[in-house]
């Protein structure tokens, strides 16, 4: 699949499934203490001094809402206008905009934290270095990035999701390789975790907590 197509097919699919996505996943975190714990850790590491946190690929805003309830100033971005429409409706106190992971409409070093919660899984591998460079650019020194994705080493063509016939690609990603790409973009690894599949999951789930160093080394 050409790189020019992946965003178009991903946007079309999520525009279609947005209402079902919101309905099915709205309370998903309630039954997932592991994910809540990692998001809570992220919130504590980032801090609540009022500096913004970017939820990149925010969907309908469920994770942004969770982090906001823990004192963070969260701003969501997603490729799908329909997802953003629902996010704004369901979370009127938060800020959401349509945008692309490859070209973030954010100033350099403007974010205390960056979250990519299952939002890199549709990007081709050759696009990930640009996405990670953008994440590093907008994160302030000392800030943290948290990424979640399905662990594996394959690409899956999805034909049905959230009650609709769709057509898009989801990539299962090797956590060590993704960590190496993030390190190449300038991040330092804070922690990495892989848990086994839950009742509704078919693959292990990976989580990477990365940090942008507070200052460059003297010999850099």
TrEMBL record:
Domain Methyltransferase: 53-143
Keywords from the UniProt entry: Ubiquinone
Signal sequence annotation: none
Organism name: Paeniglutamicibacter kerguelensis
Pfam family, one: Methyltransf_25
Glycoprotein recorded as keyword: no
Source superkingdom: Bacteria
Record protein name field: Ubiquinone/menaquinone biosynthesis C-methylase UbiE
CDD domains according to UniProt: AdoMet_MTases
């Amino acid at each position: 699949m050409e790189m020019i197509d992946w965003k178009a097919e991903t946007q079309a699919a999520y525009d279609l499934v947005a209402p079902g996505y919101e309905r099915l996943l709205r309370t998903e975190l309630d039954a997932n203490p592991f994910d809540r714990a990692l998001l809570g850790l992220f919130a504590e590491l980032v801090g609540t001094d009022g500096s913004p946190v970017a939820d990149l690929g925010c969907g309908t805003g469920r994770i942004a809402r969770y982090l906001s309830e823990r004192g963070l100033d969260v701003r969501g971005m997603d490729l799908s206008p329909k997802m953003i429409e629902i996010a704004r409706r369901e979370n009127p106190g938060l800020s959401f905009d349509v945008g692309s992971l490859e070209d973030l409409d954010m100033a350099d070093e403007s974010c205390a934290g960056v979250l990519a919660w299952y939002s890199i899984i549709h990007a081709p591998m050759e696009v990930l270095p640009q996405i990670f460079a953008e994440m590093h650019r907008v994160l302030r020194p000392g800030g943290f990035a948290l990424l979640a994705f399905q662990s594996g080493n394959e690409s899956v063509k999805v034909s049905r999701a959230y009650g609709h016939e769709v057509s898009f690609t989801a990539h299962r990603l090797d956590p060590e390789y993704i960590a190496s790409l993030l390190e190449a973009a300038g991040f330092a690894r804070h922690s990495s975790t892989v848990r086994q599949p839950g009742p509704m999951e078919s693959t292990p789930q990976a989580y990477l907590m990365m940090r942008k160093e507070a200052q460059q080394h003297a010999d850099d």
